[in-house]
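In response to the reviewer comment on reproducibility (Comment 2.3), we provide here a single inverse folding case reported in full, input and output, so that an independent group could reproduce the run without further information from us. The structure tokens appear first.
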């Protein structure tokens, strides 16, 4: 399903739903961050997705990372809560979601790199390699917070 992300856009459609979702900042031994190149909006992003009924947020983070990247992770902490109502995601079925994302830090414990129906590329990128890449501003904020190893989670 195609999607369009809007951020601080006065012409954005009004949200008609809110769905808890997760993202994961996982680093390799060289300090490079695990990213996917999304198939639905053609942007680079942290692995993640919606929390299913009956599932904890941390379990969703593990599942989504495995599904989108092939890697198994262990959640190690909380990067932050990203709930800016000025960030909405419009889907081609008419749903317009208000952002509600819990971003976790995690360590890779196994698996092998692979793509999925949601990820056309999976890569580990160094912080300097992120400049100039197609990354949504809200996602870039999460990446930057995860790379900064903040002592307190971001709440915003």
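Designed residues, in position order:
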């Amino acid at each position: 399903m195609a999607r369009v992300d809007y951020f601080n856009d006065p012409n954005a459609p009004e949200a008609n739903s809110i769905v808890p979702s997760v993202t994961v900042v996982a680093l390799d031994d060289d300090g490079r961050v695990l990213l996917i190149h999304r198939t639905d909006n053609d942007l680079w992003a942290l692995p993640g997705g919606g929390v299913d009924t009956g599932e904890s947020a941390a379990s969703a983070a593990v599942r989504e990372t495995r599904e989108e990247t092939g890697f198994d992770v262990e959640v190690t902490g909380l990067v932050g809560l990203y709930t800016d109502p000025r960030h909405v995601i419009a889907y081609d079925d008419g749903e317009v979601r208000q952002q509600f994302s819990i971003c976790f830090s995690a360590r890779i414990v196994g698996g092998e790199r692979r793509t999925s129906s949601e990820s056309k590329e999976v890569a580990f990128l160094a912080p300097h390699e992120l400049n100039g890449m197609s990354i949504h501003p809200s996602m870039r904020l999460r990446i930057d917070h995860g790379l900064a190893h903040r002592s307190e989670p971001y709440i915003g």
